[in-house]
Amino acid sequence: MGHARTFWTAWQRARDAGGALVMRMEDLDPDRSRTVYAEAALDDLRWLGIRWHEGPDRGGPFAPYVQSKRRSVYLDAWHKLLAGGFLFPCKCSRKDLEAALTAPHESSSRRSADQRARKAEALDDEPVYPGTCRHREGHAPQLRGPTGVDLESPEGANWRFRVPDGESVEFKDLNLGPQRFVTGEDFGDFVVWRRDGVPSYQLACVADDAAMGITEVVRGADLLKSTARQILLYRALGLRIPQWFHCHLVVDHNGRRLAKRHDALSLHALRQRGLTPMKILSADLPMDTIAHR
Ligand SMILES: [Zn+2]
Prior knowledge:
alpha+beta
C-alpha cells in the first residue's frame, strides 16, 4: 500500500509535467527477490490504473529495466569510484561493527546482533561506520601498490564510500522543502558493494537513475538520508543530480509504516476484499480505517 501510493504520486507528477514514468524493478537482494513477487507487484499497480511508459514489461530506450540484468552498469560505476580514490575495502563483519558500536552491557547473542543490524538497514538508520578499515595500511585513497585485494573486481569485501568529515549536504526537496545532513554525523562511510557480490541500493540507484535519464525521483521520506548519500555519489561520478520529491510515509494507527507490513493492508488483500482502486488511492490517512470498512 505504501509503495503503491508513492508510485501513484510519481505517475501524477510525470503526467502533470508531460514526462515519462519509468518502472524499474529493483531486485538485487537475493534474499528478498523472486520473479513471482515482481510479477505480482506489476499486476497490482496495473490494477490500480497506473500506466508507466518504460519498464520491464514494456521495454524502452534504456532497457533492461530489471536491476539483476544491469550488473555491468554497476561494475562500471564501481571502477570509476575506485579509480577516483573514493572507495576502500572493509573487512569488518557484522559482529565487528556491532562490537564497535554497542555499549558493553548490551551484549547479546550473535543472532540478535544480526537481527538488529538488519533492522537498522531496513529503516535506513544504520549506525555511523566507526572507520575501522578506513586508514588500513595499503588502502590509501588511490589504492596504489599491493593492497591484498583484486582491483579488477569488488568480490571478497564490503566496499565503502569514503565520506568526508563534517560536510553539509543540502538539497531542496520538491515536497518537503530544504534538507540538510552532515557527513560523519548523520551517516558515515556507506557500502556501495557488498561482500556477497551485490551492489548496494545506493550505487545501483544512482548508476541507473543517471543512465536512464531520470530527472525527478519520487520516493518515500524514509530515504531522505539516502538521498544525501547518493548526492555524494553523483558528485564523485560527475553525474547530473536529479530533483527529489519525497512522499510522507503512510502509517497505520500504531505508527507503523504500511510498506513494512505484509498483512491485511497489502494491496493484494484489499483487492481481494473488493475495495476499488479509487477508494484505496483516495482514502484518508491513517490507512487502517479503510481496511475496516
Ligand atoms: Zn571495516
